[in-house]
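dumping these here so i dont lose them again. two proteins, back to back, each one seq then structure tokens. dont judge the mess
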Amino acid sequence: MEEHELIRQAMRGDNTALSQLLQQHYDFVYKYLLKITLNPSISEDITQETVIRCIEKIKLYNGKSKFSSWLMTIATHLLIDQGRRRKREKLWQEQEQISRLKWQTGSQNEVWPDVLNSLAKLPQESRIPVILKHYYGYTYEEIGQMLSIAEGTVKSRVHHALKQLRKELE
């Protein structure tokens, strides 16, 4: 049976046609996601979510684009949404860690300086060089060797991080 006929039947509620249609496109969607994520596990998860979304929304397919393009659009949106969720989760976890550290230092009668709050807002790639430079006194060259990045990159990250810290602390 041709694809357009399978689509038509699937839109009418034929589960067999929908199943056949999804089986034909599963590998295509998976390989597309694998090229983007470079992670088989994430690609598999999002491919399965794409199939579920397709089952739920098949009646909304309007035929203006290829069915495979429609599936790729769904997969792409799911991937972007997952990235946003992960970013929010990571931020939440970092805030939880900061709260725990504040509590631990408070319970040990230590002071939690405002600068540590500001440091926590820096991305990790900037926070590490600043701490190594200004808390531990390493040279730019030593930091570059530790992080396997160029000395100029270290200087740039430290400069921009300090600029952001000054802005935060004002």
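---- next one ----
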Amino acid sequence: MRLRDRLLSLCGAMVLGAGMTGASLAASATVRSGDTIQLGDTVFRLDGIDAPEVDQLCIDDHADSWSCGVEAREQLGKLIGGSAVRCDDLGPDKPLKTRRIGLCTVDGDRVSLNQQMARAGFAVGADPAAKARVKDDVAAAKEALRGLWKGCFVAPAEFRTDKKDGALLGAACRTDRDREIRAVLFPDAPSAPPGCSIKGKFAVRARVTGNIGIYHLQGCPSYPATTEPDRWFCSEDDARAAGFRRAFNCRAPKK
């Protein structure tokens, strides 16, 4: 191959390659959570929105406990259906640099998944500087009491940091039931969501490594002893993104 052809080939690979800021990747999507999808080997967090964590609970409009994080994940799956998704790579995600920030759209749609999740009421705005402009979509969902807004919930960021005194959001929040509501939103022994078996425990000693908690994998000596986890994770990437480190007695899983 001539030098000119080799250079052109290399440049083409750089433009099309995933994991590079400005690149665009289209593929079948695996939904990880209400704001995270995986295309091939690349994981994208949807730019500009923050959806409930998969293990997060909310209260619905009938004052019942509601697995809103699971439903947010299902909502994103429904929006995608079986179609291919294209994500514009906006760079690495700060909480987990192996994950990318994406502006993602189902092939054939004009409106991004970022906006659609906000319009459906299953996500709040996350970053004022984001390229995905969802402020009006979030406001419209709140006004129409769609999705999360029909009930009562805490912002996903406050759930991740265990901020039990954070602001209560949604139409079903009652000031005279504040203590009872927070007990539902932050249960002492949360149930594991489907497909999520990694146990997370908030721990002061984790701060030595710059984390807020420790996660335990099945097969680790510490796993059975962690009888009342504070969080449940579906993958190690999810746990690390939430600020948890692997328990030191856990070996890396065999590949």
